[in-house]
Amino acid sequence: MSACVPAGATESAHTERAHPPHSPPPGRRRRFRVASADLSAAVAVFLIALPLSLGIALTTGAPLQAGLVAAAVGGIVAGRLGGSPLQVSGPAAGLTVVTADVIHQYGWRTTCAVTVLAGLAQLGLGCLRVARGALAVSPAIVHGMLAGIGVTIAVAQAHIVLGGEPQSSVPDNLRALPAQLADLDPAALAMSVLTLAVLLLWPRLPGRAGHLLRRVPAALVAVAGATALAAAAGLVLPLVDLPSWRSHALAGLPEGPVLGLIAAVLATTLVCSVQSLLGAVAVDKLASARPGAGHVVRSDLDRELLGQGAANVVSGTLGGLPVAGVAVRSTANVHAGAVSRNSTMLHGVLVVAAALLLVPLLELIPLASLAALVMAVGIRMVSLHHIRTVTRHREVLVYAVTALGVISLGVLEGVALGIAMAVGVALHRLTRTRITHEEENGVHHVHVRGQLTFLAVPRLSRALHLVPQGADVVVALDGSFMDHAAYETLQDWQSTHTTRGGTVEITGRRAGVRIAEPGALAFGPEPGGESGTAGDCRCRPWTAWRNHQCDRPSAAPDAAPPDDTPGTVAVDPPADRASSAPARRRTASGRQLVRGLSTFQRRTAPLVRGELARLAREGQRPSQLFLTCADSRVVTSMITSSGPGDLFVVRNVGNLVPPPGAESGDDSVAAAIEYAVDVLAVRSITVCGHSGCGAMQALLDSGPGSPAVTPLGRWLRHGGPSLERLRDSGASVPRLAGRGPVDDVEQLCLTNVVQQLEHLRAHEAVARALKEGSLELHGVYFHVGEAQAYLLAEQEEGRVFDRVREVDLAV
């Protein structure tokens, strides 16, 4: 009977504990065992790594064996010592520009020495435990750096694709490109086009046969196909040339200007470290998104930096290229089902075997095919997804400056320009504050958009002095920060203006609350100088009661709101101050309720009174029936950004929809559905589940056929079909925005939403409206911890949702 290894296992010892049915006898050593998933993953990664390693070595101008050495060392050394068990290391495309520049300036043996020194620098950084700090670099800089490197690679390899030789820089390559086009090699171009076509079309093969064929890596098929065709046609092309390992050049003492060597070491260290650390984080996300992944141990980034440093020291010493985490191979490793670091190490062993035994086959590969393969990798490094992301966050200027700097000047210079631009953008945002003044119906409005710092104080003073004495003023602060200089200026002006007969109201437009001094409690005088009461809550409307910090520090902990305050509800204080703890808790709950009602009466009611009066006159006309769980953390109006009259909300334990005719003794849900569809004529019904649902946990904990002797147990029987759907091995596994559920509870929460949608379709009113086309059904999953709403899609195409991610879920 075979046993599967947990997806979170990261050590070979863990794997050993998962497999043997009995413990080994005392005194006997455990045999090294490899899971079948690790073995198949190692083969898949090896088939990708072999042509890519040769192609990257060709791109840098290094000996082709150097790519194989780096691949083997990255797999064995970094795989064994690194902190990310599933990340595969080796020669990376992101390092080609740096390495090619060092080789061009100082030669190959000095480049190997630079690799060793970069590895030592990484070991030092790992010992200092600064790995997490590297993740603080702006993603726009990292993506811009990779995009610049990708453009550099693609432009250089275009010359080899056309049958020529690349120049030393992007401008030189661009200038030489017209002449190269006029003197292209048809045979080299044909092999390159064939390679690119296979790379593009192989992942898109249709049908069941295509699904099986796609398991073979596209890179291997492309290079092998071009090699076979070139050999069969007898084409005369430059081929891979692997000299004897006896003449392989090892590292030598560094020779050259000290400052230049230091810059080369810094650039190599920077690119290797950042790419490896970001890759480790990405691999964690990929591993946790696999179906049935369970608990996945996160990468130890400091250990990963130490492992990468050791690999670079060994690779440089043995005459290999610099080593870093490689996204393509790591993704293939995870998707192939690897469960431990054994897959990474085995792939390195396979590279060693190929380098020693497959030299005659490797020397048949056309260089043009390898160049096309690497050019495709470079083009993919310019990610449209990254460009859209940085544009959405208004960092496209940082991205563009970094990319152009890398293309025109070099990696280190481009990153420095990107950092400078990022700092400039941050300062610009800090100082870009718009202050306007206008009068409306006798009330003066001063609107501050942006961060209110000392730099904006002169403009703020000019706007405030436009307000005449004794006028009513509203100062709206539309920003998230106000420093002490701006606060003092605003408070001094407010005091002066109110003493001269004017009124001042200072509000935060986005939060809908008054602004207090930075760092202080949100408590202050009422407009006009009156002091607030204990019931004067300045927190956001959705702030939880237990997180309120609105009481005066001097207020007695058990003081109740005064009963003569307009709009408040009076309660009698407890007679016995030494009452029991439960009584004190009940009193505190009463005060929380009173405080909330008081705040509504004085702050919210004046704003919504007109809308509620209209709804009272016209009656309710909701557009949606929103059926969700009774969980206190699910706030429907906040999730949907809806207001009074928008939603007809039905809540119950587990957001269950009993099917028609179910023996429940409770028709409340069916009655609500019938009323919403037939009377209110809602246009859509939404079933909303959520993470951490206690009802779903109770369903999982209950065994099949468990007696339901309590009202809760009898109600949860309606969740039985969801549990059966979960345990159905033939049913599709819900996927949440590209990842699988993190555990069985989340999977059941998602499955339950789908099952309740099916129950909805069985109701007569719903079925009739769906047939008429007057009703739509939607499923929503709300992740409480992420504050993220996911819209469940039924394999629909072309739908775009603002700030909502789709769930790929076959219904």
Q: How far apart are the termini?
A: 33 Å
Largest sheet: 6 strands, mixed
Q: Residue ranges: pLDDT <50 for 5 or more in a row? A: 1-28, 509-539, 549-579, 795-811
Main sheet: strand order: 8-7-9-10-11-12
Could you report the average pLDDT, rounded to the nearest whole number?
A: 78
Number of strands: 12
- Form type: globular
What oligomeric assembly is this protein in?
single chain
Helix content: 40-55%
Using only CA atoms, what is the Rg?
A: 33 Å
Structural class: alpha/beta
Helix tally equals 30
Percent in strands: 5-15%
Main location: membrane
Keywords: Membrane, Transmembrane, Transmembrane helix
Subcellular location: Membrane
Membrane topology: Multi-pass membrane protein
Question: Any overview of this molecule?
Answer:
The structure is a single chain. With 811 residues, this protein is of the alpha/beta class. Helices cover 52% and strands 8% of the residues. It has 30 helices and twelve strands. The strands form three sheets. A six-stranded mixed beta sheet has the order 8-7-9-10-11-12. The longest helix is centred in the last third of the chain and has 38 residues, at 581-618. The model is unreliable at 1-28, 509-539, 549-579 and 795-811 (pLDDT under 50).
Descriptive tags:
811 residues, alpha/beta, four-stranded mixed sheet, disordered C terminus, STAS_dom_sf, transmembrane helix
